[in-house]
């Protein structure tokens, strides 16, 4: 079985979405990439999580051609591939329809950084994409979804803000591998829920100061980070 380690990692990442309560039914999917081998492992389309096995994880090349599987890959595969091609540092992508993050996507609102929990994970607001055009929707829809995400990040560092809200659709997150992408997806849902409550309590709530935002982000990320223990991923 090709790249069994990658397949196992992608299987566990998909199951973690269920364990963390950010997916229901067959909503959502996770992929991981081996840039060395030029392949992506991703959840098969429509297979219930409780039935998912490592053998069912689909391996494709970077053009979406199936390398090893008798199952169809997730219909969102072209979106994942666009992100892998545009963001060279990422090793995993997670897509969910988690409740609060999706509500912000449906409202077509970016999520401001109202507090330090957000700042720990995202160095800036979590952006929302523009609405897709009728031509984009009618054409190669999933590939166009990836393209609109990439355009949204023209002036945003995807390594510092590893998440996006696709307008009227839902969140995509990424990380250094599949597990990190899921971690960020869970953090995004937590941050989105707190932002929803913040706005409900105070409709005029303002984002945190840049000084506080920077302090919390850089104490966990970058060369000067001091949160956690040495050698922790």
Question: How would you sum up this structure, described in words?
Answer:
The protein is an alpha+beta fold and 233 residues long. It has one domain (4-218): 3-Layer(aba) Sandwich (L-fuculose-1-phosphate Aldolase). The protein is 39% helix and 13% strand. The chain has eight helices and seven strands; from the N terminus they run αββββαβααααββαα. Helix 1 runs parallel beside helix 7, helix 2 packs parallel to helix 6 and helix 3 (99-106) packs across helix 7. The radius of gyration is 17 Å and the shape is globular. The mean pLDDT is 95.
Question: What are the SSEs and their pairings?
Answer:
Elements: H1 4-19, E1 29-34, E2 39-42, E3 58-61, E4 66-68, H2 77-86, E5 92-95, H3 99-106, H4 116-121, H5 134-138, H6 141-152, E6 163-166, E7 170-175, H7 178-201, H8 210-218
Antiparallel strand pairs: 1-2, 1-5, 2-3, 3-4, 5-7, 6-7
Helix pairs in contact: 1-7, 2-6, 3-7
Mean pLDDT: 95
CATH architecture designation: 3-Layer(aba) Sandwich
N-to-C series of helices and strands:
HEEEEHEHHHHEEHH
Q: Helical proportion?
A: 25-40%
Question: How many β-strand stretches?
Answer: 7
**Biggest sheet, spatial arrangement of strands:** 4-3-2-1-5-7-6
Task: Please compute the radius of gyration using only Cα atoms.
Answer: 17 Å
Shape type: globular
In percent, how much strand structure appears in the residues?
A: 5-15%
Distance between the termini: 28 Å
- The CATH fourth-level homologous superfamily: Class II aldolase/adducin N-terminal domain
Assign the CATH class.
Answer: Alpha Beta
- Low-pLDDT windows of residues: none
CATH topology: L-fuculose-1-phosphate Aldolase
Q: Strand pairing plus helix content: what structural class?
A: alpha+beta
- Our count of domains comes out at 1
The biggest sheet, with number of strands, parallel, antiparallel or mixed sense and barrel status, is: 7 strands, antiparallel
Number of helices: 8
């Amino acid at each position: 079985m090709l790249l069994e380690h990658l397949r196992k990692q992608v299987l566990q990442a998909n199951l973690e979405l269920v364990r963390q309560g950010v997916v229901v039914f067959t909503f959502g999917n996770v992929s991981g990439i081996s840039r060395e081998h030029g392949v992506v492992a991703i959840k098969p389309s429509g297979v219930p999580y409780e039935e998912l096995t490592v053998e069912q994880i689909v391996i494709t090349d970077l053009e979406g051609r199936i390398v090893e599987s008798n199952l169809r890959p997730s219909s969102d595969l072209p979106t994942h591939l666009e992100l892998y091609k545009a963001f060279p540092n990422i090793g995993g992508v997670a897509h969910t329809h988690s409740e609060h993050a999706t509500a912000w996507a449906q409202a077509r609102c970016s999520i401001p950084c109202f507090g330090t929990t957000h700042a720990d994970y995202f160095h800036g607001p979590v952006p929302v994409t523009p609405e897709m055009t009728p031509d984009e929707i009618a054409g190669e829809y999933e590939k166009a979804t990836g393209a609109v995400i990439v355009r949204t990040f023209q002036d945003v560092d995807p390594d510092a803000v590893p998440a996006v809200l696709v307008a009227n659709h839902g969140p995509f997150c990424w990380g250094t591998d599949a597990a990190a992408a899921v971690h960020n997806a869970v953090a995004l849902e937590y941050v989105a829920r707190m932002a929803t409550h913040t706005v409900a309590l105070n409709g005029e709530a303002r984002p945190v100061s840049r000084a506080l935002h920077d302090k919390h982000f850089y104490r966990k990320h970058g060369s000067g980070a001091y949160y956690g223990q040495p050698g922790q991923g």
